[in-house]
Amino acid sequence: MEMLIFMLVLTYAAQTYAVGQCPNITGKILQRMPDLDKKMYSYKIQINVPALSKTLDGLEFYDHVNGTVFLFLDQIKDGKRCSNKVMYDYQNNQTFKVNEITKQCDVSNLTSTIEQMSLFGAGVENGPDSVKNSFLWNAGYNSTYEGNVTVDGIITDHYQTCLTFENNTVTYLVDVYFSMHNWTMPAAQRAPVKLTLQALTTAPNGTTTSQAYVYKFSDFHTSNATDSWTPTRPFGMICKGRKDKPRSEIKVYSEQHTLKFEVYTSLASSTIVTAEIVEYYDKINNFFRVDLMYGQGESAFHSKIVHDFNQGLAFNQTSSGVCQITPIPINSSYIDAEANKTSHLVHLKQMGAFVDATKPAYGGLGMYKGIAADIWIGTKPVNAPYGVFYPGNNEYLYLTMYTANLNGHGTLIGIDQTVISEVNATTNLTVKQHLYAYDSGRGINDLNVFDVSQCYNQSLKTTVVMKFPGEQYHQILMNYPSFQKAIIQEVGKQAGLPFYRISSHVFVTSTLELDTDSQNVTRLFVWVTLLGVPDVQGDSETMVPQASLESAMSKLKAAVADNFIVTFNTTASPISLTALRNFLKTDQELLAPPPECPDTPNPPAAKGLTTGETVGLAIGMVVLGIMLSCGVMIWRGRRSNRQYAYTMQD
């Protein structure tokens, strides 16, 4: 490497004051040059080579505690700027070389003298040595003290040493200038100020050539400096063969997971679109949902997409109230679906399958949004016809992913993504997205996450009412989410329906009525809505045949007539309730007017609901109507103010 000409100084074992070109030191006092900080120090350095009319700018950092040496060089080579970083990682026995211009990173073992590029460190001829011993700045050589010299206005102590190499055919005459003992420096005392090197080489024919080098130091800092800078190993790039290991894994997913992103999308026209994404992944129940929100005011857009992999159905809802039910496409834009190998159906991918497909490589440890994160680099071609922006054309995805150990486990905290799409044979579209995961958690805590009742009109719904004893009414109110979940699961189980065909709007009312002994007792009326067979748009080949409402009602009536028991959890212990047998009515049956009676002087007494039933059901219908109306308004209101954009996550 060409720059070694300027950098290999004091790197080989030498014979001090040997014969050759060294000056006569008879009568001079031998002294060690000042030692630099034993823990950590850094400085900027300018290297001047007068004979070549060339200057290099550099920065060196020595970390004796953590076993790291860092060197940065900036120069002009062949008319082009060349910026290189070299890091010696003694903890992992590796050397990084990074070209800052081309962003190319090479890794090699720290076992060869060829790898030695430090300006003032000892070599590694005998294998990798500890940085605590190898990189003593003056290498332990004795010097002669030459008195005080003023350098750039700084009064310095001048030291001189002479070294010979290769059977006395190479001589280094080195003059080093340190700030004098009582000179105040910003970050440290006894700082290196200047070094000059006169290199003399004697050829076999006796001809001697000379080369001069001048090193000027500035911005010297030690471990005691409050503004000291600590470099890191290369990050945000692939360094093949690196030995340092990540602190968190890229596979940070679970069977149930929630991810929330802020998304910033940059188009080729420099247009930036800000959006939000919320994803719910449930491998246990085979559901996937993504919400997309962007825009504000009248231009705001919000969509909710739920994929039911049990039935092969996709529910697509928008803030305008429009909902479409279709089969889940195999080429789903959300990369959650995959075709089964043994049937025409699709299945939910393992969370992280898309990330795995990019074959992510570890890219080092860096900072992301103020968090120390492991960085991963991945690439994936998306072949036609599964293009996202231009379906039918090829696409290429380039991803940088950030993970960190949060709350005791690996967590995805951000993604930088570039999508390059073929618009046509001569034009490509480049879209860059930055996804900041501001909330990520394991588990699905909200029972209503996969509710798709907004996709059903009234003709595809049936609301039923069951009656229960009222002794546990207070416990139901105190533990309502648990009771709601238990009712939905038990009704779906007995009716033979998937749970999403039981609306999440479950209502409970109470009333007093007379029992067989004419005593007032509390009864509970539980209102549950069954959703009908979905109206699927398009080819339904991938859809599993579903039970009709008539079939579901028949099964549910049989269950209530037999022994319908619902058990819900409380803070103390589970509670079980048994529905009163043979009481299962639809809202239509309850609201139907009584039949007209014949005009007779003494009409027979009307048979129907008790006074308590009538009052309880009337109150329940009023509450149900209010809650349903509010539910629609809340749903629309929330979606009128937020919106999501496209994501490529599982």
UniProtKB/TrEMBL annotation:
Residues 22-224, 234-456 form the LolA-like domain. Keywords: Membrane, Signal, Transmembrane, Transmembrane helix. CDD domains: TM_EphA1. InterPro entries: LolA-like_dom_2nd. The chain crosses the membrane at residues 615-635. It comes from the Eukaryota. Pfam families: LolA_2nd_metazoa. Residues 1-18 form the signal peptide. This is Uncharacterized LOC100181108. The gene is LOC100181108.
